[in-house]
Specification:
Elements lengths: L18 H12 L5 H8 L5 H5 L2 E2 L7 E2 L15 H35 L10 H10 L9 H17 L13 H10 L6 H11 L8 H31 L5 E5 L9 E6 L3 H10 L3 H9 L5 E6 H11 L3 E3 L4 H6 L3 E6 L8 H6 L4 E4 L10 E2 L7 H15 L13 E5 L3 H9 L7 H8 L5 E5 L11 H12 L2 E6 H9 L13 H10 L4 E5 L4 H14 L11 E5 L5 H12 L3 E5 L8 H15 L3 E4 L2 H19 L12 H6 L1
Parallel strand pairs: 4-5, 4-7, 5-6, 7-8, 8-9, 11-12, 11-14, 12-13, 14-15, 15-16
Antiparallel strand pairs: 1-2, 3-10
Helix pairs in contact: 4-6, 4-8, 4-9, 4-22, 4-23, 5-6, 5-9, 6-9, 8-9, 9-21, 9-22, 10-12, 10-15, 18-24
The chain binds FE(4)-NI(1)-S(5) cluster and iron/sulfur cluster.
The site of iron/sulfur cluster has 13 residues, from loops.
Length: 650
């Protein structure tokens, strides 16, 4: 199929499936601004196959040792085999990804504690969630003030990180059968930080040499992320900033304004972006903006910070990970404020071609060429105001802008509590109707599309093609992260997208008034999907463990190590997960077979990888069908292939 490409984008860089982005990329390249497109072209197609496939070890200075599986003498100088090496590399990705979420979680708890003590400008917005979470942490709530309960919850949540033994409180939320599996395998996380430390130790030269044993610790480390740090982040953020409810908002470059000061928040922790949202309409700020000839200040998001403020405030998203440089190349951004993770080092270089200031805010993440203004939740509002004032002062320097008119409406805000209410109705919030619709076959199953977009695939095309094919086959889609932004750009996050569904899912979506693709938030909010899966189990009729429910996940455009950590905690929780375009163990067949096949016996879920989005969708639908068969609720139906005609219909 011929797709339109920008002039400078030959076959090497697949580019992005977004007309608006391509316009701006062309504008940028004519101006001589380099973005990921030129960098991908510069690197070419050749990638080191040892590195890409996981069989290069550089864990000691006798190496690097590159290995070819099946060639007996092709092992490490220390004797390490390709399978062990691939396992060690894979596990280090889990540790790094988990560490990212863990540090995010820790920061959230620190902000939460400060808020509870009245030392930060946040409040306790969701008291109900505070009380239910306190219960899980065995905190006495009767006759106590909200403040006292919140402080104790903050302290107990913080203790989860440094705990050496005794297990994590949120683990008890998992289905009982799942907890028993973890216990039997010896992979119940003992404390959050401990599992990362042990993972790094075990992958150190000369420690754990058994790939199966390594992956067990990989699971334990990943579970400490999913059912530990990520869940703590989501729940405490909800308590502080409000649990999301359905909200209408806009997505894509067109959300930037020609006549306002544009401040873009990019990164992951919502603490600063919440503060920015609080002050953006402050009379003092508005007056300052008007004094330089702007109508006001327009806040927009990129990446998961964008998802956090979209979910809770309806603040628009200007772009996903792959669009971060494109957002700058509109020439319309006065300041891009970044904190941690998924921030391209190229941002200050791109910004230099415009009047834009890049502002780093976390002591853990500085970039040469950026301005550093350290954020501290104690003086959050002051920092937020200072940042916005700096942005305002740049507005008069703005040159020609190129803001494409393209923006798409989305409905976001589907926390698992919302799904409960929407599907169960106002009087009887429950997952019963969802389970019933799965059992009667109106809904075939649930498919999660999560994770990054990437410069190595036709960005956005893969996500949305998988999504379209799933909903056409009556699979309800849950989405988070940059995958959600991609689906949003293409109009899949609106109730109107129900017209693209199979008849069963369409009926359900139209009756309830929900989109067939539900935006559940940022990447730490994948913990919401764990809880949604658990609620489906608890509701009954679809088995007694996550490994039995007809649900499956994918990250078809993944790029970050966090995606590997997330995938592993889903697999270890009993959900099968498929990745697209590349997989980091493929040069060891032994290791890859272990992950793609053997894990199924251990966890009831396993990994997979396919290149083509149609193959990814097929894999997911087959996995769902297999589970339906095992449950005895399967009726055979022709798989609907998503074609061009259906595509044009949207
Ligand atoms: Ni998730 Fe979100 Fe996006 Fe990927 Fe990066 S922003 S935490 S890692 S690229 S989805
Ligand atoms: Fe080579 Fe072994 Fe050192 Fe790895 S740990 S670099 S395989 S000698």
């Amino acid at each position: 199929m011929e797709r339109k490409r920008t002039a400078f984008c030959p076959s090497i860089c697949p580019g992005i499936e977004c007309e608006a982005s391509n316009q701006v990329l062309e504008f940028a390249s004519n101006k001589g601004v380099n973005t990921f497109v030129q960098r991908v072209e510069g690197r070419g197609l050749d990638r080191c196959q040892f590195g890409a496939g996981g069989t290069c070890c550089r864990n000691c200075s006798m190496g690097p040792c590159m290995m070819i599986e099946g060639v007996p003498e092709s092992i490490g100088i220390c004797g390490a085999t390709p399978a062990t090496t691939a396992a060690r590399n894979f596990c280090r990705m889990i540790a790094a990804g988990a560490a990212a979420h863990i540090d995010h979680g820790r920061e959230t708890v620190m902000g939460f504690l400060a808020a509870a003590k009245g030392e930060a400008p946040y409040e306790i917005k969701d008291e109900r969630k505070l009380l239910s979470t306190a219960q899980l942490f065995e905190i006495k709530t009767e006759g106590r003030s909200i403040k006292d309960i919140a402080i104790e919850l903050g302290e107990k949540a913080m203790a989860e990180f440094g705990r050496q033994d005794g297990g994590l409180h949120f683990i008890k939320r998992a289905p009982v059968k799942r907890q028993e599996i973890w216990k039997k395998l010896g992979i119940l996380p003992r404390g959050i930080d401990r599992e990362v430390t042990e993972m790094m130790h075990r992958t150190h030269m000369g420690t754990d040499q058994d790939y199966e044993n390594l992956i067990l610790q990989g699971s334990r480390c990943a579970l400490a992320d999913g059912w530990g740090a990520s869940m703590i982040s989501t729940e405490l953020q909800d308590i502080m900033f409000g649990t999301p409810v359905p909200i209408r908002a806009m997505v894509n470059l067109g959300v930037l304004k020609t006549d306002e000061v544009n401040v873009v928040v990019h990164g992951h922790e919502p603490l600063l972006s919440e503060a920015l949202a609080m002050v953006v309409d402050d009379p003092e700020i508005v007056a300052a903006a008007q004094a330089v000839g702007a109508k006001g200040v327009n806040l927009a998001g990129v990446c998961c910070t964008g998802n956090e403020v979209l979910m809770r405030h309806g603040i628009p998203i200007a772009g996903s990970f792959i669009q971060q440089e494109i957002v700058l190349a509109t020439g319309a951004v006065e300041a891009m404020v970044v904190d941690i993770q998924c921030i391209m080092q190229s941002l200050p270089t791109v910004a230099k071609c415009y009047h834009t200031e890049i502002i780093t805010t976390s002591p853990r993440a500085k970039i040469t060429g950026a301005t550093h203004i350290e954020f501290d939740h104690h003086n959050a509002l002051q920092v937020a105001k200072d940042i916005i004032k700096r942005a305002i002062s740049r507005y008069p320097q703005r040159g020609p802008v190129h803001i494409p008119q393209r923006k798409t409406e989305v409905v976001a805000g589907f926390s698992h509590e919302t799904i409960n209410h929407m599907l169960g109705g106002a009087f009887r919030a429950s997952y019963r109707p969802l389970n019933d619709n799965i059992i009667n076959g109106r809904i075939k199953g649930v498919g999660a599309i999560v994770g990054c977009d990437s410069a190595r695939v036709r960005s956005g095309y893969v996500h949305t093609t998988v999504a379209r094919e799933l909903i056409a086959n009556d699979v309800l889609v849950l989405t988070t992260g940059c995958a959600a932004t991609a689906c949003g750009r293409e109009g899949l996050l609106t109730p109107e997208a129900a017209s693209l569904c199979g008849p069963g899912l369409r009926e359900v979506c139209e009756a309830v008034g929900i989109p067939p693709v539900l935006h559940m938030g940022s990447c730490v909010d994948n913990s919401r999907i764990l809880i949604a899966a658990t609620e489906i189990v608890r509701e009954g009729g679809l088995g007694d463990d996550i490994s039995q429910i007809p649900a499956v996940g994918c990250a078809p455009e993944w790029m970050s190590e966090k995606a590997i950590a997330i995938g592993q905690y889903f697999v270890a929780s009993g959900a099968s997960v498929i990745f697209g375009h590349t997989f980091p163990t493929t040069k060891s067949q032994v290791m890859t077979d272990y992950l793609f096949k053997d894990l199924l016996d251990l966890y009831g879920g396993c990994w997979g990888m396919e290149n083509d989005p149609h193959d990814i969708a097929r894999w997911m639908i087959e996995a769902i069908d297999k589970r339906r068969e095992a449950l005895g609720i399967h009726k055979k139906k022709e798989r609907v292939l998503f074609d061009m005609a259906m595509r044009r219909e949207l």
